[in-house]
Automatic annotation (TrEMBL), chains A, D:
Name of this protein: Alpha-ketoacid dehydrogenase subunit beta
Pfam families per the UniProt record, alphabetical: Transket_pyr, Transketolase_C
Any GO MF annotation of the entry: magnesium ion binding
Domain spans labelled Transketolase-like pyrimidine-binding: 19-194
CC cofactor: thiamine diphosphate
Length: 347, 413, 413, 347
């Protein structure tokens, strides 16, 4: 379980790529529906249509309309009924159609989904998985590209997962569904059509063998000079930047967090202590964000190993821009390289 | 929660398009028009006069499609006992707040008939979804009063096991619990269980978006949920006219293709009759219904509130004359159902409950600070374990200091 | 926005409790019962048959309390022209999407009668609150089509000045705009203006909590808002039966003490009649109303959608036969209102608009990346200035590199 | 305008204290209503009752029920209509009754209030002030004590103000109402009854003279050894801790941020560069919070002046606890002193 599959465009890969990120998610849902009778999948357009990204494609037909179904168009309603269903013994997997359309459900998330286990002194578990297609880079119009993980990561009581590879799309969604805690599961939209040479039955077997790496980060690329900490949609960009930096003679170690809550401090710190420099890359606006937290923790924990300040490349502190401008907003390979360049190498 | 469900999957959700709408089908079964089915009866349902005498049938507000058989004497006597206990619990808790033993208590004094009926109309396996004001309903459903008070004493947020009692934690964020109720009903339907869910809220709460979403989900998925609105005329200081311009809150049922009904909320007999029928219909037809009870909160919103700022004493006095307790007592005494022996038994029961409340609330209970980290997740994360350790060290240091101080003091003596 | 308002403060919000409810007053003025006032007429209002002939009065669905005078020929001819322009705009944009010149375009092909009527029933000072699908309504209200397309081309989020045109930015988060509409109306009432606000949404959007809150605020504060629901039977793939179990969406008015009405959404004559009367009532009585138009989206939800997954071709074909354009055309031709000259003028107008759309969308417009920082606040903060500088440096470096590459290339030649 | 008024309990102050924090807010509302006809105040219970904290006491009676009024009980409704009112020329001041009860309005805040100016390319300003009584320390029950500033600070397009003194309660609320941008204005509940010897007419004259310190931090206490950065509810605790530290021979400089967005980096950095050590104190749960941002920025900007890692004392990453436990959750003088102790003084 330590091999990391880089997301490669199909054209470049040697063997014909078989599995897409969206396909891996679809399979994870299907296998979860098969593995346990208490799993139900619902949301807007997830039934007949199979979801606007086709992640739930075929589930209603295969598992019945009482296992996978469309709801009225109301996100608070979806989240609130998921809470009630979970309270009464089910294991709901709900979809918020796009990042910004989860906001109407925010009260149900913050005041109930996140707090119920604690409110009831541990007597009630809410094993709810909330799937959120999220982030930019796909030319989406306003309200369709928010990176909203910061809101949820800041809310105690929620687990927050963000897969960045096809393999993790499968494994982490199954983990999220099996978790006794509520998990907000972010699906980077721009990775939906990324592919990997993976066999679904192998993945299923791996998962069902019980091996787990829940809540642990992985070193997605080894390096010695600087640690680049990232997750989800920025992982491919980070790996490309690391590649480019290598050509310039800088060896970048890339840590893929996978899970924001819980957070794998040990893997991050071990890397930073080794390299002495750290850079955090994330798409979300940077102010009071997950990236801020990572910078803060790294300097708190690894201060005396640091040769230069921990830096970050994030989205700007602006509302997500219109399609023609997004390339200037998102962390790019060049911007990452510029910041790496700027990390006081003369010291 | 980790075992899978082995009961067979329940009846399927109705198909997207039906020949007859649900309303058309149910109303035609009842022999009335869909509009007459959805709209409340012209007057609110009432069985007892404010003085506690049984009204003649033609004055009860009932009629075709709005028939409500009066429950048996046995049931009503039982209801009376819970009513008395409820009143006693309310007033004991208000006293404990005044004595500083409770952080807060939103009393339902004046609304106890609603509270008791909401719990008593349900079967054991049915679920109740109460609010902060519905302590008496929770107790009437069978939860130990002392467990309920855990939250108001400030020990922890909820002190009972919702699943054991099929009673959700009392909800403070208004109207959110209605959606939980709908979800719980949906789960039961999917498993093929015939559970009914009763969800409570106030008049003010009907203005929240979640009210709309809950009623709509329940109607679209045909779920057996009784939405029970205690309309006490105020949301803290804001009067009903600022919440709604509808003729009655029960009229809101129409927008969901549901039936709505109004009941005198200080008439325990009418409430028991109306809610029992609603629960029966919900169960047998697998439909949601909306019941509005018109009642009054006799005390301020909570101890922190000053109701003289927003309502006339005259109005409060008028409602005192319609008090549900006296009304029920008169009726049962006149009918010979409540004799001296029964009254004595009830009153003794009330005193026992009150005494146990007093004893428990006067005891000093101090929850363990380290427990704060135990229930955030099913297993504390690495981050929480570190924070727990930090606090544990602090507490240990404080304790050591305390012991040192103590030793110093003792040494000085 | 920084000058203070010098118009006198408007009529006060009605007092909390009134002798007669609003519904009782308005309905008694009309000589009907409150329930008849609130409930829609038994059948949807329709003036034209699907073939475009005027229906006899007794088949129009109108009746006491539901009277809708037919607008003048002049008005209808004007409406027809906008209808044709709207259809042309829709189809031109769909073509531009196919050619990759637009990022996305949610077409209202099939719903243009609703679009045109929604804009034309308003006076110049009245406000319109449209959705992503209501481009044709926005254009019909007088906004330059090229400005509207700024968002769909991906240059910026909204390309016109909402205040200049009294037309809000097209809303994507569903139903949120209904509350903005209510607030805008409230502002006007407070200033004593007699503005009417028309707010548009789809059938799916009625399920959101904001729908409830908007209608309720409008009713409680007695605001002149016409809520206009284009019920096209689907929310993306989800059919109406999954949104509501009410007999019609117009029935939702009852829960707010409002009047609801249903109109044939492909009959421009009926729509103009019904919406004009709603706007008049809203203005003169200062009341909100709900109008549901039953129509059909002939194309997929957007270009990203595949409607063969969720609806039968047969159904689409059925609706093609009820197309609003042909119907209106037949009616006006038969009536002699639309002669060859007028038809030619209209068609020329359509082509002009389409050509300007093609020209503009085929031109390469590249917004300045640094503008991203200009409108976050009225003045950029220190933080935003720093981020702007960062990007400016990057762009400068890129430009320099570009120039260097160019020079190198030129040197090599 | 550079004198800083410490919040002192009435009993300890020399002259009889005259003005409470809540009173200052009430006066700011009244003076704003007088100064401009476009100001309207609305929310739940703000009219007849004068608000559950009496901050709007008397306004409806004095200025009329069309200037200050109660709404139906619906926070999204309140926020959404405020957006529409502002769009149509008014200047709404809305109250969310308690922190957690603002969550139902989150979509209206995140997708419209914050974005409208940007969406419309600067053509529409939304001068809305959102008042939120917030935070803990008053024995409140669940859902009444959230520190929610992080959600708003993370949302581009919102200004976020948090006064920590009676003087600022007045001045900053007037600034918030006059601002052409939406401002989320946090009122620390536990300071409502704090008092200061201030004359309202002086304050009014100061404000109306046009002098402004919008968006600027102040040094609330001078010091040389360590910089304590804080705001709002934690300011009095921080000042007490500084006092106590002084007795131990450590000179603590306390920076009161006042405004989170925009942020006064210059004042913070100037202080940290002087002292060489920094500590951030805030009540909110620490993960991905405003405190994280402050730690991150300080190390990014002052790295080479730092003698030890930037530290933070925040609420734990747990749902706000029940009344009997809150004292253990909130940053306390002792906890702050412990962390200061731990700041590698031997270096
Ligand atoms: C979402 C939300 N907003 C505001 C509040 C604050 N609040 C608590 S009770 C209350 C009034 C509720 O009135 P009603 O629903 O009529 O119930 P009652 O208290 O009369 O039983 C308010 C505004 C809250 N608890 N939740
Ligand atoms: C709050 C929110 N949730 C989800 C969406 C995604 N979405 C966009 S359009 C749509 C369907 C809307 O249906 P309807 O209201 O009937 O309007 P129509 O598209 O048919 O005109 C959905 C679910 C959204 N835009 N906003
Ligand atoms: Mg009430
Ligand atoms: Mg639709």
């Amino acid at each position: 379980m330590t091999t990391v599959t880089e997301t490669k465009p199909a054209a470049q890969s040697a063997k014909p790529a078989k599995l897409t990120f969206a396909g891996a998610l679809n399979a994870a849902l299907a296998h979860s529906l098969e593995a346990r009778q208490d799993v139900v999948v619902f949301g807007e357009d997830v039934g007949t249509l199979g979801g606007v990204f086709r992640v739930t494609d075929g589930l209603a037909a295969r598992y019945g309309t009482d296992r996978c179904f469309d709801t009225p168009l109301a996100e608070s309603g979806i989240m609130g009924t998921a809470v009630g269903m979970a309270l009464n013994g089910m294991r709901p997997v709900v979809e918020m159609q796009f990042d910004a359309f989860a906001y109407p459900a925010f009260e149900q998330v913050a005041s109930h989904l996140a707090k119920m286990h604690n409110r009831t002194r541990g007597r009630v578990e809410l094993p709810v998985a909330v799937r959120i297609p999220y982030g930019g880079g796909v030319g989406g119009v306003e309200h369709h590209c928010d990176s909203s993980e910061g809101y949820y990561a800041h809310t105690p009581g929620l687990k927050v997962y963000v897969p960045g590879t096809v393999e993790d799309a499968y494994l982490m969604l199954r983990e999220a569904i099996d978790s006794p805690d509520p998990v907000v599961f972010f699906e980077p939209k721009k990775l939906y059509w990324s592919k990997a040479d993976l066999d679904l039955e192998d993945l299923r077997a791996t998962y069902e063998s019980g091996e787990r790496r829940e809540g642990s980060a992985v070193v997605a690329r080894q390096g010695t000079d600087v640690t680049l900490v990232t997750y989800g949609p920025s992982l491919p960009t980070a790996l490309k930047a690391a590649e480019a930096a290598a050509e310039d003679g800088v060896s970048v170690e890339v840590v893929d967090l996978r899970s924001i809550v819980p957070l794998d401090d040990d893997t991050v710190c071990a890397s930073v202590e080794k390299t002495g420099r750290a850079l955090v890359v994330a798409e979300a606006q940077g102010f009071a964000s997950v990236a801020s937290e990572l910078v803060a923790r790294i300097q708190e924990r690894c201060f005396h190993s640091l040769a230069s300040p921990v830096r970050r490349v994030t989205g700007f502190d602006i509302p997500y821009p219109a399609p023609k401008l997004e390339e200037h907003h998102l962390p790019s390979v060049d911007r990452i390289l510029d910041v790496i360049d700027d990390m006081q190498w003369e010291d | 929660m980790s075992e899978s469900i082995d009961t067979p999957v329940g009846p399927p959700i109705p198909p997207a398009r039906q020949e007859l709408t649900l309303v058309e089908r149910v109303s035609s079964q009842m022999g009335i028009s869909p509009e007459d089915y959805m709209l409340p009866a012209e007057r609110e349902i009432r069985m007892l006069s404010p003085e506690g005498t049984l009204l003649p049938a033609e004055q009860q507000g009932t009629g075709p499609g709005h028939e409500y058989p009066i429950p048996s004497d046995e049931v009503l006597l039982e209801a009376y006992e819970r009513l008395m206990v409820g009143r006693r619990v309310n007033d004991q808790n208000t006293a404990l707040v005044r004595q500083g033993r409770l952080a807060v208590y939103p009393s339902s004094h004046g609304q106890e008939a609603c509270q008791v009926a909401a719990a008593m109309c349900l079967e054991d396996n049915d679920w109740l979804f109460p609010t902060y004001r519905d302590t008496v309903a929770v107790i009437s459903k069978g939860v130990d009063p002392l467990d309920v008070m855990v939250s108001f004493r400030g020990d922890w947020h909820c002190g009972y096991d919702p699943k054991e009692h099929k009673t959700a934690a009392q909800a403070t964020p208004l109207t959110t619990q209605l959606l939980h109720a709908v979800g719980a009903a949906h789960a039961a339907v999917l498993r093929g269980e015939d559970t009914v869910v009763l969800a409570m809220c106030g008049d003010g709460a009907t203005s929240e978006g979640d009210f709309h979403e809950a009623l709509n989900f329940a109607a679209v998925f045909r779920l057996p949920v009784v939405f029970f609105v205690q309309n006490n005329g105020y949301a803290i200081s804001v009067p009903l006219a600022r919440q709604s311009a509808a003729p009655t809150l029960a009229h809101k049922a129409v927008g969901y293709g549901m039936a709505g009904e109004r009941v005198d909320g200080n008439d325990l007999v009418a409430l028991m009759a109306a809610l029992r029928r609603a629960v029966d219909l919900a169960r047998t037809e697998r439909i949601p219904l909306l019941v509005e009870a018109h009642t009054y909160r006799m005390q301020a919103h909570t101890n922190a509130d000053d109701d003289t700022r927003y309502r006339e004493r005259e109005e409060v006095k008028e409602w005192a004359a319609k008090d549900p307790v006296l009304r029920m007592e008169t009726y049962l005494r006149d009918k010979g159902v409540l004799d001296e022996a029964a009254a004595a038994r009830v009153s003794e029961h009330c005193e026992t409950v009150a005494a146990s409340l007093r004893d428990a609330m006067n005891a000093d209970v101090n929850p363990d600070p380290l427990e704060m980290f135990d229930h955030v997740f099913s297993e504390p994360t690495q981050q929480l374990r570190e924070q727990r350790d930090w606090l544990a060290e602090e507490l240990a240091a404080e304790a050591a200091e305390g012991r040192a101080d103590q030793a110093a003091k003792e040494g000085a003596r």
